[in-house]
Each structure stands twice: as C-alpha cells, then as structure tokens.
C-alpha cells in the first residue's frame, strides 16, 4: 500500500483531498504545517492557525487517519517573511505563495514526508499531474491546469521541478469547487462550508501596510503625477502592435519607464515608497482628480511614488518583460530554449489573470517575453509563468 502525507490546512480542499486518497486505498497521514508564532513580527491580529489546526485534527479523526503538526515557523520566517521584507524594501512585489510552495510545501514538508516513509505528498491545489515516457524510458511529469478554470492554481506551483512533481498528488484537480464542497457535506466534514482562506500560505490574512511597517520604517515622500500625454510614451505607442518585428530592439520593448520628479506634478505625500506597488489604487489618499490615480512606478532610493490618472494610463502598460538568467526556471527542462532561439507560449503574470499570447526569446542577458498586446501593471518581483495549452512549462521572477 502506497503511503501519502497530506498537507492539511484546515480548509475544505485539503480535507476532501485526504478523504479521496483514503477512498482510493492509500495509507494516508495528515500533517498540519505551523508556520508562524514569532511575536517580534505580528503577521495578523488574528490567530487563524489555531482554529485551522483544530479543524484539520477533527477531519483527520473523522477520516480515521493519523495526524500531527509540524513546526516550520523558523524556516518560514527565513525563507518567506524575510524575503518579503527584502523585496518590498527594494521596491519589488514578491509573491509569497509561490515561494511557500517551492520552499516550504515541496521542500521542507516533502523531505519530512519522505522521512516518514511516504511515497507521495498531496495537497488541495486545483491542478493536475500527468506523465509520459519517451523512447529511452525516461519519465516526464506534466503540471496541468485544474479543471475548474475559476480555481486553477497551477500558477502557484510554477517553481516546482521534476522531482518535486514526481512526488506530488493533487486529488481534487479534476473537480469543480462546488463538487468539492458537496463531497465534504456528504462526508459530514467540519470544513464543508468553511470560507476559503485568504492571505499568506498556511498563515492567514495579512494587513500588508501594518505588516511592512514593523520592519520598514515610514518615510514621508512625494507623490508625483505623470500626464498621460508625456513624450516618453510616444515610443511605446509606436511599438505597440509591431512587437515581433525582428528589427526592433528587445530591450526597447521590455525596459520599464524611468521617471524623474520633474516629469510631472507633485500632488501629495506618502508614508514610504516601499509600501506601494505598480497598479495600486488604494492608499494614495489623493483626491480631486478627474480619474482615480494609479501607481505607475516607485523609486525607493529617492522615495518617490509616480502616479497616473485612470486605468488606461500608458504608464501602466508595457510590451514585454525580462527575466534574468538566474531567475529562469523550466519545469519542462526538455523544452528549455537555447540562446538565440524563441518560442510562442501563453503567459500569466499574476494569479487568475487570463493567459496572454507572447513570444519568448532566450538571449545571453536573459529571457525576453514580448506580448502580442501591451500588458498592464507588470511589477518587478512578480512571477511570470508560461504555458502550452493546459501545461505549465516554466516560470521566472520579473526583473
């Protein structure tokens, strides 16, 4: 009998995942990851992990499976929280959930499960796994989108490698969310009608400004509004629609705009540029403009937040992006692009964003990603993931 360790979060998805594995005849062990109890940095005024752990225990008892809690708070602080602080301090926008899956669930948690004699680990992610064998007998594992397109979570697993995927099971990947809740109700699981968790992976909802202010001190600076008809946007407007003409410079298509305070008008003040991200609307506290202001860039060195009116402001859009060589990750190593080659993929730069058509160009300075149409709110530090049909092929941190 194959042994599976299930990451039980205290939510309905992982509860049903555990139930399905029991039904399928696996030897199932439930494991709850305690990721936070550091009083020096308060992630949330609430303590959701206590309730979640109790719910996970009750579900495990209902299913008749062994259950235990593992304390990963030290590793979580070092690998996720410290990383978040560093990234925001540099004016970048990290995605802690992607990092949590790479560094915690499918690294430390996976290693712990293997020490327990597990053949696989399982999670409640809405995604699927497939495998194929080539003529040489080598197995390739494929990460596929979940059947429920509204809940597909393959993006959050974009940093996994072949070994990690080989050990992973996603029992609910073929189900719609409504079907998952129906199964939970039929099995009388306490989590059947529990709201979906929000916020950090296995931690809970985070009040980001308050969280960041614990380590990143407030620093008053200027909010500068850049007019939509600024001359610097003319090249971008001219290049739009011609993105894949070979005579155009890839760098010209991917460079972010470089603003100076003199390019616009000071319209207010902010508590610190490191608290803001591209595309943000809330928190600027500047009124009286015909259209709402959006953050189009931040400069943490000069502590300036640049803004533009309206969600159609050209400063919010870019034709492409660059991923530096050390940040390029191929889940499908067999499809890795050689320098000087290119391929067409569908790309996602944030969770739940519709897939967008793009061409990837691998050059010595990194992987260029040129979109068929300009993309909104591309922020350094985010993960871009690329797909072939339903399969996630690779990902990387936007430079």
Spell out the CATH superfamily of the largest domain.
Answer: HUPs
| The level-1 CATH class of the largest domain | Alpha Beta
Element-level helix/strand string: EHEHEHHEEEHEHHEHHEEEEEEEEEE
Number of domains: 2
Amount of beta strand: 25-35%
What is the name of the CATH architecture of the largest domain? 3-Layer(aba) Sandwich
Reported by name, the CATH topology of the largest domain is Rossmann fold
Individual helix count: 9
Radius of gyration: 23 Å
Query: Helix amount, in percent?
Result: 10-25%
Q: Return residue spans where pLDDT drops below 50 for at least 5 consecutive residues.
A: none
Structural class: alpha/beta
Molecular shape: globular
Number of strands: 18
The major beta sheet can be summarized as:
9 strands, antiparallel
User: What separation lies between the terminal Cα atoms?
Assistant: 46 Å
Rounded mean pLDDT score: 91
Describe the structure in brief:
The protein has 399 residues and is α/β, with parallel strands linked by helices. The protein has helices at 12-23, 48-63, 73-89, 96-115, 162-166, 177-186, 208-213, 234-239, 250-254, and strands at residues 3-7, 27-34, 67-71, 120-122, 127-133, 139-145, 168-169, 221-225, 265-270, 293-299, 304-309, 317-323, 328-330, 342-348, 356-363, 366-376, 383-388, 391-397.
Description:
With 399 residues, the chain is α/β, with parallel strands linked by helices. The protein has 2 domains: 3-213, Rossmann fold (3-Layer(aba) Sandwich); 217-399, Translation factors (Elongation Factor Tu (Ef-tu), domain 3, Beta Barrel), CATH 2.40.30.10. It is built from 9 helices and 18 strands. The strands form 3 sheets. Strands 5, 6, 12, 13, 14, 15, 16, 17 and 18 form a 9-stranded antiparallel sheet that branches. Strands 3-2-1-4-7 form a 5-stranded parallel sheet, with helices on both faces. A hairpin with a 7-residue loop joins strand 14 (342-348) and strand 15 (356-363). Helix 3 runs antiparallel to helix 4 (96-115). The longest helix has 20 residues, at 96-115. It is globular and about 70 Å long. The termini are far apart. The model has no long low-confidence stretch (mean pLDDT 91).
């Amino acid at each position: 009998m194959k042994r599976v360790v299930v990451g039980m979060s205290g939510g309905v998805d992982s509860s049903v995942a555990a139930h399905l594995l029991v039904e399928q005849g696996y030897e199932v062990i439930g494991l709850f990851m305690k990721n936070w109890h550091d009083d020096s940095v308060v992630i949330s005024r609430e303590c959701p992990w206590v309730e979640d752990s109790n719910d996970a225990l009750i579900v495990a008892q209902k299913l008749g499976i062994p259950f235990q809690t593992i304390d990963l708070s030290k590793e979580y602080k070092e690998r996720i929280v410290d990383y978040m602080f560093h990234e925001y301090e540099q004016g970048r926008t990290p995605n802690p959930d992607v990092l949590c899956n790479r560094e915690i669930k499918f690294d430390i948690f996976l290693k712990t499960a293997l020490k327990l004699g597990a053949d696989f680990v399982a999670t409640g992610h809405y995604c699927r796994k497939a495998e194929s064998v080539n003529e040489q007998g080598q197995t390739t594992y494929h990460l596929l989108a979940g059947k429920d397109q509204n809940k597909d979570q393959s993006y959050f697993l974009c940093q996994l490698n072949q070994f990690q995927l080989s050990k992973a099971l996603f029992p609910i990947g073929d189900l719609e969310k409504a079907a998952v809740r129906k199964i939970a109700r039929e099995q009388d699981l306490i989590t059947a009608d529990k709201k979906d968790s929000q916020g950090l992976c296995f931690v809970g909802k985070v009040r980001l400004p308050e969280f960041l202010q614990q380590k990143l001190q407030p620093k008053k600076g200027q909010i500068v509004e850049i007019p939509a008809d600024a001359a610097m946007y003319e090249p971008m407007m001219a290049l739009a629609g011609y993105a894949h003409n070979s005579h155009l410079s890839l760098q010209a298509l991917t460079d972010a705009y470089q603003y100076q305070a003199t390019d616009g008008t000071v319209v207010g003040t902010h508590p610190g540029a490191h608290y803001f991200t591209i595309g943000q609307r809330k928190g600027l506290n500047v009124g009286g403009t015909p259209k709402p202001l959006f953050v189009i860039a931040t400069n943490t060195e000069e502590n300036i937040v640049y803004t533009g009116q309206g969600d159609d402001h050209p400063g919010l859009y870019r034709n492409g992006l660059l991923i530096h060589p050390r940040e390029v990750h191929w889940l499908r190593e067999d499809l890795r692009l050689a320098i000087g080659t290119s391929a067409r993929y569908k790309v996602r730069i944030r969770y739940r964003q519709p897939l967008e058509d793009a061409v990837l160009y691998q050059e010595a300075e990194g992987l260029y990603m040129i979109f068929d149409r300009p993309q909104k709110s591309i922020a350094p530090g985010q993960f871009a993931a690329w797909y072939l049909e339903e399969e996630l092929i690779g990902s990387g941190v936007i430079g």
